[in-house]
Amino acid sequence: MRVIQTIKDFKGDINTLFNAFVDDLVSQELIEVGTRYSLIEIGPRENYSTIIQIVVRSHTTIKVDVSFTQNLSNIDVNYASTAETDFSLVLKTNRKAVKKIQQKLGKDGMQKARDASLVPLIQKSITSVVKSLQEKPVGATAEDPLTILQRKFVNGEISEEEYLRKKELLNQF
Fold first, then answer.
1. For residue 97, what pLDDT is reported?
2. pLDDT at residue 12 greater than cutoff 60
3. Residue 38 · residue 153 · CB < 8 Å
4. Burial, 97: exposed, middle or buried (Cβ in 10 Å; 0-12, 13-18, 19+)?
5. What is the DSSP string of the chain?
6. CA distance 152 to 158
7. What whole-number distance in Å separates Cα of residue 138 and Cα of residue 129?
8. How far apart are CA 168 and CA 173, in angstroms?
9. Global pTM?
10. Over the stretch 124-172, which tens digit does the pLDDT of each residue have?
11. Pairwise CA distance, residues 88 & 74, whole Å
12. pLDDT tens, 45-90?
């Protein structure tokens, strides 16, 4: 596994971050050569680690191991991927093409090709989740104070006098 990103000075809860990240990642689609592929979580979420599976073609499965490691106030995002090709499912005409690509690119080239698609997708999910968690702390609401006040008045939680007084105060800001 290798570190593909470090989240610096993260102040929130690593468990919340990890779960939100995995949920966001599996909601993404990998688009490669005009084809969309779904990401499926197949590993249990243990110790901030899980396994994501992508069935690229009927004969090739990519497994991605993603884990978070906390170091003081930073969190390292670790990544590794492996591809498994079931040649028994590959038609004879395609088998030659697949072997030719593997020979041309080699093992390192195949890994680099996978990484070129997967690493940016993972980094995009991390950036998105960190940004949303830092902008909206746990338990925070997206509603503005006036909307909350109106809702409390409509639900009978506050009187008309209290509503008008607080509304006037809010409008001063």
1. 58
2. yes
3. no
4. exposed
5. -EEEEEETT--S-HHHHHHHHHHHHHHSEEEETTEEEEEEE-S--BTTEEEEEEEEETTEEEEEEEEEEEETTEEEEEEEEEEEE-GGGS-HHHHHHHHHHHHHHHHHHHHHHHHHHHHHHHHHHHHHHHHHHHHS-TT--SS-HHHHHHHHHHTTSS-HHHHHHHHHHHHH-
6. 6
7. 13
8. 9
9. 0.62
10. 888 888 888 877 655 555 567 777 778 788 878 788 888 888 888 777 7
11. 45
12. 889 998 888 776 656 777 888 899 888 778 888 888 877 765 444 4
For residues 14 and 41, what is the distance between their CA atoms, to the nearest angstrom?
Answer: 19
**Is the dihedral angle over the CA atoms 45, 121, 76, 9 positive or is it negative?**
negative
Q: Output phi, psi for 72, to 5 deg.
A: 55, -115
Amino acid making up residue 41:
E
Q: Which two tokens stand for residue 70?
A: 């906390």
Buried b (16+ CB within 10 A) or exposed e, 71-94: eeeebbbbbebebebeeeebeeee
pLDDT value for 137: 52
β pairing state of 29-32 and 2-7: unpaired
Length of the chain: 173
| Across 32-49, average pLDDT | 79
Amino acid identity, position 102: Q
